[in-house]
Structure formats: C-alpha cells, structure tokens
Amino acid sequence: MLDATRSPLHPAARETLLTALDAGWADPRRLHREGRRARHLLDRARESIAASIGARPDEVSFHPSGAHALRTGVTGLRHPRRRTSTRVLTSAVDRAVLLHEAHDADPDTAPLPVDRLGRLDPATLEHALSAAPTALVALQHANGEVGTVQPVAALHDVCRAASVPLLVDGTASLGRIVDPAAWDALVGDASTVAGPPVGVLAVRTGTRFDLPGPRWEPEQGREVEDPWVPLVLAAAEGWQQAVHARAVEEASARALTDRIRTAAAAVPDVEVAGDPSDRLPHVVTFSALYVDGESIVEALDQRGVAVASGSACTSSRLEPSHVLAAMGALTHGNVRVTLPLEAVRPHRGDDVGLLCRELPGVVAELRARLGVGDL
Questions:
Q1: What is the rounded CA–CA span in Å between residue 60 and residue 185?
Q2: Dist CA 156 CA 159 (whole Å)
C-alpha cells in the first residue's frame, strides 16, 4: 500500500482510541466525575501536541479536519484586518482550500508563481506584498504532491518586515520532518502521522485573531463544540509516536523513495517532479509521457500495487494537477506515492520493490496499446 494520504491508524493510536472510548467519552464541560476526567484527558492531549509542534497549549485548538483548521485559520487572521485589506496571498502550488480562500477574498489576486521545483522565492513574496495592502499570507511548509519544502524561515522574515501574519500549512509535513519554527499560525492534521483526521490550529500569542459572528467557548473560541475526546487522545498518541520515531522513520522512508525516484527516472520519457533532496521523505510524484495516470494506477493495482494519481486536481472534472502545471512539469500520466509509516506498514519495502519491478512493464504495455513506442 503506497497511497497513505489516509492510512490505517498507528497501532498505539488505535489502542488509545479503544481505551478512551471508556475513559474519555463524557462531555468535558460537565462538572461530574466523568466530565472532569474527560477534561483532564483533553488538556493532556493538548499539552502533548502543543509540545510536539513548538506551541503553547493555550495557542492550540482542535478541528474536524486539517482543511477545516486551514479555513478557520485564514478566516480568523483575515477578519481583524478587514479594514486594511482582505487580500490573501498564497502560492500556485498550495492546497486547493487555500487557493479558494484567497480567490474568494480577492478574485483579482493571482497565486504567486513558483520555480520548476515548486519552490516560492522570498523575493517574489516581497514584491507581491509591496504591490498592495495584504491581510494575510498562507503558504505550505512542504508540498504533499511533489514533496518540495518551502523556505519558511525566509518567507516569515519577509512577512514580518511587512507586518503581515504568516499562516503555515503543515498538513502534509508535521510529524514527518522537523517542524517549522517560524510562523504566526500553524496548521497540521493527525492523519499525516497515522492518527485520526483531527485538524490542529496553533496561533502565536500576540497574533491578532478573531472570527466573525458570536464568540464561542470551545477551543479558544474557534469552534462551536468541544472535540470528541477519544479522537483527540488518539491523535495525540499518533503524533507522539511519530515524533519519537521521526529520525529513523525519515531515513528509512527517504531511502525507499530514492529507490522509486531512480526506478521511475530509468523508464523512458518519465519525469520525476520536485526537489530531489530538500523534500518530504515519504512522497514521490512522477509522470509518464503518452499515457494517463488513471490507467497506470489501475494497471498497477491489478499487480498488487496501490498508488494514487495526481493527474487530476479534481478527478471528477478531469483537470490536470494545478501543482504540476504551476511548476511547468508534465501534468498527464501522473502517479503519486505516499509512503505509510513503517509502524503501520512494516513490509512497505516489499511494496516499493514490487512497484519498481512492475512500473517499466506497465508503462510499456499501456504505450503499446496506444501504438506509441518509447522514443
């Protein structure tokens, strides 16, 4: 299984979830014994995740998903600056949810261009900030499709000089590589570390943050209801396990994705996207000329290899990947590999070996059906 954007739960997270069904089921706002116990467990989970990402517990809130946390972060940072500007800057390779939020805020502002590796130049951001008042900059830490890591510290310096807050999207990276230290708001998703899909939003103390409408009590005023404590406990356990094993996991995953990159590049007319070194260790994307990604995925699936295709940004509309298009890379015949944690898939090396063996034949067979040979 090499498509772990969503993976099975980490064994420790699963065990925590099952235990928490009995220990943490109550409403943490209730004053009875069960409610107080649930509140204690929720506070412990918040402290654990906050420590993992370099935040204070009172800066952290939990949300139904990473995408939900991103939208909450954008809204809460933009709203108190609405008299100055509603403009949101993001890059052309960011997640669709950020691109949509930026477009809704100001349809005339285009996403910032990136280079062939998918990286945003701080000078490009500096020029864009000088062009018009801006409420917020929202950028990814690392790209979940091609793996390229952004120069977050330098980008934050540019934002700070312009007195504009920076929201960092770490939904593809937190827990898998060293977390960024430079941010005004940071978003993660526990599913990235084989936890349940719990979104995490951290807002630095002193950063202006206010959501429109009534102010609610739960989650620092950022949600209308408290999270379900068992899910948060499982998320915290998954995060803790990932951080503990990160150095070993990163080295192991990088060695496997290096094998995939080498095998893919050896196939004629196949292009491997993203930075070859400064990247997420568990993500690889490559594109094969003349064939479509869905056909490759189906053919590999028949051979026991589960991968994804990033050839369609919205698969139901059959649009090419906006990430690859922004990079000027080949957008069709695209295959994306996202390695699960070794704790979830102990034999993932066998999966990688099978992919590397089967890929050349799959591509050649599909091209032959189309009457197109390798050049």
A1: 10
A2: 5
- What pTM was estimated for this model as a whole? 0.93
Alpha-carbon gap, residue 293 to 148, rounded angstroms? 21
Q: Is residue 2 part of a domain?
A: no
Burial of 104 (0-12, 13-18, 19+ CB in 10 A): exposed
Is there a contact between 181 and 54 (Cβ–Cβ < 8 Å)? yes
DSSP SS3 for 289: coil
Q: What amino acid is encoded at 303 in this protein?
A: R
Side chain identity at residue 275, one-letter code: D
Judge if 226 and 278 occupy the same domain.
no
Give the integer Cα–Cα distance in Å for 280 and 302. 28
pLDDT, tens digit, for every residue of 113-169? 999 999 999 999 999 999 999 999 999 999 999 999 999 999 999 999 999 999 999
Last residue of a domain, one of 187, 218, 244: 244
Is residue 168 within 8 A of residue 181, CB to CB? The reply is no
**Residue-range definition of the domain harbouring residue 124:** 11-244
